[in-house]
Design brief:
Elements: H1 2-16, E1 37-41, E2 48-55, E3 58-66, E4 72-76, H2 79-83, E5 87-93, E6 96-103, E7 109-114, H3 125-130, E8 132-142, E9 145-153, E10 160-167, E11 173-180
Parallel strand pairs: 1-5
Antiparallel strand pairs: 2-3, 3-6, 4-5, 6-7, 8-9, 9-10, 10-11
Length: 185
């Protein structure tokens, strides 16, 4: 009889374990039900930007393309969300990368792969964590040197910065200027 009572007591304790606890926190750090509806906005981008030129007998080929890496997620709020408390919406932003092929007049070839990481020492630390490189293109010729502009932004905000940089005929990457392009209201 003692064994039966002890077995029943153990079963009751096991079945009651966890009763009365507050719900577990989800991945968002709150107690939203696990059956949330998640919507993510941003289609893959397969476009590319190309720029080719020759200056002082050095050929520059630039190709910028989307990495489709879903690098930055921002929670967004729409009218749909006010109608459905379990709806969670995200805007997703991808980084872009740029490949350079530089052929000098003595047929030496230099190849460079430029990503957001190449600019991390030029941009504010808090900004580099939340931004994505969404554009990188030829800007101008200054003193016989090609100048390129890489643009970084925090998605769905007006927080944006650009970095002007040059590429030498020997494939050296040099930061020229950082500009805050944020829109002040």
């Amino acid at each position: 009889m003692r064994i039966s009572a002890l077995t029943i007591l153990i079963l009751v304790v096991i079945s009651c374990n966890g009763q009365g606890k507050s719900p577990e926190k989800n991945a968002f750090g709150d107690n939203r039900p696990k059956s949330d509806t998640v919507k993510i906005f941003l289609e893959p981008d397969f476009s590319s930007y190309k720029f080719d030129t020759t200056i002082n007998q050095t050929a520059y080929q630039m190709t910028t393309y989307c990495l489709n890496d879903s690098a930055v997620f921002n929670e967004t709020f729409s009218d749909d969300r006010s109608k459905n408390e379990n709806l969670i919406e995200f805007s997703v932003a991808h980084n872009f990368a740029t490949d350079f092929i530089i052929t000098s007049n003595n047929d030496k070839v230099f190849k460079l792969h430029i990503t957001k990481e190449n600019f991390k020492d030029s941009l504010p630390t808090d900004f580099i964590k939340i931004c994505h490189m969404w554009r990188n293109e030829f800007s101008k010729i200054e003193n016989g040197q090609l100048v390129f502009r890489a643009t970084f932004a925090q998605p769905d905000t007006d927080y944006q910065m650009s970095v002007l940089y040059s590429m030498t005929e020997k494939g050296k990457f040099e930061i020229l200027k950082v500009e805050d392009e944020s829109v002040d209201e």
